Each structure stands twice: as structure tokens, then as C-alpha cells.
Amino acid sequence: MSKKRPILWLALVLAVLMALPMTAWAEPVISNEVVITPVPEEPIDPDQPVVEPGLALYASLSPDVCAPGGTPVLSVVLANTGDTLATGQIVTCTLPVGLDLLDPGALSYDSATRTITWNVEVPAGQMATMTAALSVSASSTNGMVYSIPVTCGEMSTLAALTVTDSDLRLYISSDVKRADPGDPVVFTIDLQNLGDAPANGVNLTCYTDGMIVDLGQITGGGVYEAYQINWTLDVPARSLVTVKYSADIPDDAFGGDVYTAQALAAGLSAEAPVTVREAEPLLTVSKWVNNRTPAPGTTVKYTIEVSNDGSGDAYDVRVVDHLPAALDIYTRSISDGGDYDSYDDTIEWYVDVPAYDTVTLTFKAYVPDWAEDGDTYVNRVNVPGWDSARSTLVVTEDAVPKTGYGDEVIPAAWQPASGQSSGVVETAAAADAAPVASAQTDSAQLSDIPDQPLPGIQASFQELYNQNNDLAGWLKVAEQVDQPIVQHEGNDYYMIHDFEGQEDDAGALFLDERNHLYPRDQHLLIYGHNMNDGSMFGQLSQYRDLEYLKANPTFTFQSVYDQEPTTYVVIAVVDASMDVGNADYLKIRVPNFDDEQAMLDFVASLKDFSYFDIPVETTQEDQLLSLVTCSYFQDNGRLLVVGRALREGESAEDAAALVAQSVKVK
Fold first, then answer.
1. Contact, 268 vs 231, CB < 8 A?
2. pLDDT digits over 177-220, tens only?
3. How many CB atoms lie within 10 A of CB 111?
4. Radius of gyration (Cα) for the chain, nearest Å?
5. Residue partners of 572: CB distance under 8 A and separation at least 6
6. pLDDT digit string (tens) for 361-384?
């Protein structure tokens, strides 16, 4: 045969392929593992050998890069581009040692010579496709190349396979780390291939360890049987495959029980433990007064709420209210059997607080008629070992009673505890105000009582303050938040009321009830709902993105007492749990710190939890402000964007330059 003949035959093949009509595509005819189909419009690889009467031979492996133990498929194509039937065509391929035939089936296979043989006939304009599933020896080494010679008459070609190790990683996680009996838990399994070869046919098995699997929540084609879930997965090179399932903690599980989901694949294992919450109480306390700006000689009512957010009942809970010495207590008004001790000006209760319930305690007090304008009384309550809260009122001589507030008629039998209380007046009045002699001075002193009267409301806020005396200031964050901030005696109020006091599920942005703006606490907390429509703090989650952080490194807050807004530079973006005992728990309601080290430890905790390493220095003298909203990445989670007030001489540009150097660490 002359050197020109292959070129002529190739031209003939191309011409025939171009002439084939689209209607030539028909259902394949399968016979003895051979599929007969029309020759496609796209030409057969021109590098393949072509002989009379117009036959072309082609062979390939899919995938052609595979890991030890993989299962590639050999495909052999014999195309007839001639105009006559090609009969008695014998196609053979010989498997090298290291590649084995998975299932001979109807194939003709000689195990001694490791040869597969096909006897086919191919009509004119048709092609025969033959396949064989192979397995790669587990002992194959990285970089090994297997060549499979394929022949048909005078034609021959090679199909090559390169062995490259896949590098699998197996992870399993749960959407919660602690759960109550009967709770559903969603498990996520990630099978990651860091290698350059696909890992096909990987068997993944998950054991549920006594949990009750929700059969309708298994993704990725997993099949549940015999208390386990099985998947067969293909993991392409440099990719990740994720499957999920849901299982319920048994209703009769005991507190402290640990249920572990285990995943097994390719010799790897991973576990995700879930701990059943102990039936223990989790107590918090809040307090407010019905009139924060009473006139001298009026009566106020204090309300204390002790809430149990835990799954266990709390018995004989000791609640202690430390009273301002200048207030006269109406002992008959003390609810729930509270015991008043005039010696140290305290009311003490012992109450039972059922799981997921709240106990309300109240009492009334008389603001002395000799109180001066601006006198400040701080009333603190605590549940030893659990929580504390406080309520502050400021005497206002020209106070106008709010709706539902003001003087109350006190029955004659409710006499004050004394004609005039002993103790030092807890007041913010001038230093020359004459104190009353004290029987026990220390009990009436609170270190966090403001030592100077509150300043006036800034003129720029006066109109808005007249609309709602709960106004605390104004917050601006990027282009998403530009809103008033309010503060109420209880945090719950503005969770379901808007600025005008109307019921609204979106609530309002509000300052923590424990915070003081003058003098300003070291750590302010502003809360807002994570709304789906992006309102309130619905777009705060964008701070999880590094580029967004760099583009919006600062935010501002101006209280009603400030002449100018304070600029804060972001120092941490944190997802944390509010559940005590959770590995991701972070105590965030810390308005002030006991000492310098406590402040530094708090900042260190924030940075440990933060998504980013932000090179902004923070010292014990800095002021912090946390923007807080719900997060669904944690059990009872919160997202915090924490800022540090700019120091004197420090510009927003300086802060932005530091934040621009941040790197993502989580």
C-alpha cells in the first residue's frame, strides 16, 4: 500500500460522515455486548488507522487517569464508512497484568492470554461499540501507565491508563452539638478528593448509633438498611461530594447520653458526637422600673423576671435585690413572700422556676420628696451563681408621667419600712449634697453608679426623643443600617415592637437593657433581628465575607448625649453559641469588666472565635460595641460584629488600612 492510501481513505471517511443524514441516528442494536449505531456526524479520530473497505478502529478508557482500585471502562469502536457490509471482523484486546476484567458476562475472554475477543459485523455507515469494565490492581503504584493493545485485522491501536493516587478526606458534622430527647439532628458528610485522579465507586457507610433515621431526608441516593446508610459515590479529582441525612434523638434518651454518627469510606473514618442536654436549669434575670424618670414624692414599681431556659426545674432559687438606700420600700407590696432586711436594704426570695418558664417578682417603693433633680438610683438584683441585672431611675422634678406611670394609690396598711431610710443616698447629685447617716454604708454603695448627673439630650435628637423617650441613639453600618436605637427596661419589648411602639415581628434595633450610655459602659451591645428581607440586621451576615469587611471596616454610633458620632473599627466577626456548656459558647453580655485582665481575656476570646485575623490592637482602655443578631451556624447561635472605638488622633483611614491587611482564618 502506498503512503498516499491512508490519506485517501481518511478523505473518504470524512466525506461519508458529512453525507450521513440526521435520520441515520436510530435506536442501537445490541448483540453479544456489541452496540451498533450510525457513525456520528463528528469524524472518528483521524489519527486512528483506516483500512479497506473503509474501517476505522478507535479505543479509549474512561477515566484514563485512575487511582489504585479504580474501575475504568474500556471502549472499542469499529466504524464502517464504506458502502458494503463488513463481516467477520475479529477485534481483540490484551489486558496487561494489573488490569483485570470485572465481569466477563457474554464476552469471549481467554484468562490464560488475558485476551478479550469480539466477532462483529458492521453494516455500511454504521459503527460497533464494544465495552469492558476493568479494575485497577490495588498494588499499582503512583505514575504507572497501563497500555492495552487493540487489533482488528491489519489495524491496531492503544488505549492508555495512567495510575494517579486520589487523595480522599472524610468529614462528618452535625447541625447541633447538644440536643434534647426527640430533637432531629442533621448530619453532613463530606468526601473530598484532593488528588489528581478521580475516585469512582467509593462505598460510604454511616452508622446512626441508636438514633432514628428519617428515611425521607437521606440525600445522594443513600439506602438505609440494617441500621446503616450506604452510598456508592464517584468523587472527581480535586472536588468535594456532600451527602446528608437526618436522625432523631430517642425520646427516652437521658441527659448526658452521647449519640455518635460514624462515617466509613475507603479505609477512612470520621465521627460526629451529639450530647443530650442534661435536665438542668439555666437561669437568667432581668429587671425594670415602671418609671425611669419619676418626680420627687412619687411611687415606682419594680419588676423582676427570673427565667429558666434550661430543661431542668430549679428549686429554691435565691433571688436577692440590693435596694438603693434612699428609697422607702412598701413591705406589703413585696410579692411571692419576699423577705425585706432593713439592716442591709435587701429583699430576698426563694422561688421555684420550672423548666422553660419565668417567675415574676414585684415590689413598690417611694421616691423621697426631698430628692433632688438628677438624683440617680441604681437597683441591682442577682441570682447567686447565675445572673444579675439592674434598673436605674433618675429623679426629674418636672417629669410628666407616661401613660400607665406616675403616682399610685398606696393602701394605708402599706407603710414604708421606715419614715426615712438609713444609708447613703445613691445619687448623681453634686458632691456637696448632704448624705444621711448610714448604719451600714457599704451595703448601699455600688461601684457602677454614675458619679455625675446625666447631660441633656442633644438638640439633633430632641424631636425624635419627644416621640419616644426610649431613644438611645443612632447607628450607621455601611449602606445597610441607618436607624435609631432604643432601650427599654426589658430586652423583650423591642423584639416585637417597632420604634413607634406598634407590634411588629421585625422589632427595632435596641441597646441591651443593662447598658449605660453616661458614663458609657466599656462594652455596649446593640441587638436586631436577622430578617430575611435584609431589614434590621438582616445584612449583617455579609461581614462573614472578607472583601465586604475590607470595604466596610468601620461603623458609627451616636448616643443621645453625644455631640458627634463615635466611629468604631471592626476587630472581630464571630459566630458563637449562647448555650452554656456548648463548645462554641461565648459569654457576650459583659457591659463592664472587673479588671484589666478580664477585658483583655474577653478580647482574646473574640479573636479566637473570629473568622478573620484583623490586625487592630485593643487594650483595656478601649471601648467596645457589639452588633448582635441571630446565627444559624450554631446551636442557639449569635453573629457578632465587634468594633473598637477609634482613639484620639486615630482616623477612619488609619483603621481601614489596618483592616485591609486582614486574612481569613476560618
1. no
2. 888 889 999 999 999 888 777 888 888 999 988 899 999 999 99
3. 10
4. 39
5. 603, 606, 607, 609, 610, 612, 614, 640, 641, 642
6. 999 998 888 888 888 888 889 898
